[in-house]
Design a protein that fits this description.
Blueprint lengths: L11 E4 L9 H15 L2 H13 L5 H12 L5 H19 L19 E9 H10 L11 E4 L3 H10 L7 E5 L2 H10 L2 E5 L8 H7 L3 E3 L8
Parallel strand pairs: 1-2, 1-4, 2-3, 4-5, 5-6
Length: 221
C-alpha cells in the first residue's frame, strides 16, 4: 500500500465531504433508513436497505428515485420531491452538530498555492449551508463547493470546461467510487479511512496501491 504524498505540490485539491471533512456517512445512512421507515412498510424498507448498502456513494436523488420508480413501480416526481424534502429537513438539523475532521485548520498552509474544492454526492445547497454555519467557508469558498443533483464526474467535467482546475490535481475521498472518478480524469488520489463506511477499504487500497491516511491532518506531516 502506497503511503506518502506531498500535498503542497498540487495546485488543485478536490475533497469529498462525507467521511472526509464531516463525520456524516453514518448519519446520512441512518437518515435514509429513518425516512423510508416513516412512510413505508418493512418489505419496502428491506428492498431499499439492500439497494442502499450496495450504492453507498449514490446521491439522495438517485436513491429516492430508485425507491419510487423501481421499488414502488411509480412514475411520481411529487413523491420523490416529498422524500427529498423530508430528508433535507432532518439532515440540516443533524449535520450542524457533526464532527469536522482534525487538521482542517492546516488548509490555511496551502491556500496560497493550492485551490481547494469540495465535490460531494451530498446536496449542493445543503452542503454550502452547512459549511457556512460551521464556518468551513474559511477554507472553502461557496463558489468552490459542488454537489448533487449533478454527479461527481459531471461536476469535475464542468469545472474543466470552464477552466477552474489547474494541474497537478489531487482528489481526496473515502470510497471506491471517489477513486474511480479520479482515475477517469487521470488525477492522483488519497484515501481517508477514519470515517469511511466502505467496509472493504483496506483490501481495495492494497489492490490498487492507493495512498491512505487516517484523516487529512496526516497529509501535512
Amino acid at each position: 500500500m502506497k503511503r506518502s504524498i506531498k500535498i503542497s505540490s498540487y495546485k488543485t485539491i478536490i475533497f469529498d465531504c462525507d467521511g472526509v471533512i464531516l463525520n456524516s456517512n453514518f448519519i446520512k445512512n441512518d437518515t435514509f433508513i429513518q425516512i423510508v421507515k416513516n412512510f413505508y412498510n418493512q418489505e419496502i424498507l428491506d428492498k431499499f436497505e439492500e439497494f442502499n448498502e450496495k450504492n453507498i456513494s449514490k446521491s439522495r436523488y438517485d436513491k429516492f428515485k430508485f425507491l419510487v420508480n423501481d421499488i414502488l413501480n411509480l412514475e411520481d416526481n411529487n413523491k420523490i420531491n416529498f422524500l427529498l424534502l423530508e430528508f433535507t429537513k432532518l439532515m440540516k438539523k443533524k449535520l450542524i452538530n457533526c464532527d469536522v475532521t482534525p487538521g482542517i485548520d492546516k488548509l490555511k498552509l496551502i491556500k496560497k498555492k493550492s485551490n481547494c474544492f469540495v465535490v460531494t454526492a451530498g446536496d449542493q445547497k445543503e452542503t454550502r449551508y452547512i459549511f457556512e454555519k460551521k464556518q468551513l467557508n474559511n477554507y472553502f469558498s461557496s463558489n468552490n463547493i459542488y454537489g448533487s443533483p449533478k454527479n461527481k464526474y459531471e461536476i469535475i467535467q464542468n469545472l474543466l470546461e470552464i477552466e477552474k482546475l489547474k494541474s497537478p490535481i489531487l482528489c481526496i475521498g473515502d470510497s471506491d467510487s471517489d477513486y474511480f472518478v479520479s482515475k477517469k480524469f487521470g488525477y492522483d488520489f488519497v484515501f481517508i479511512y477514519q470515517w469511511t463506511n466502505f467496509s472493504n477499504w483496506r483490501k481495495f487500497c492494497d489492490d490498487y496501491s492507493i495512498c491512505c491516511y487516517k484523516n487529512i491532518s496526516y497529509l501535512f506531516e
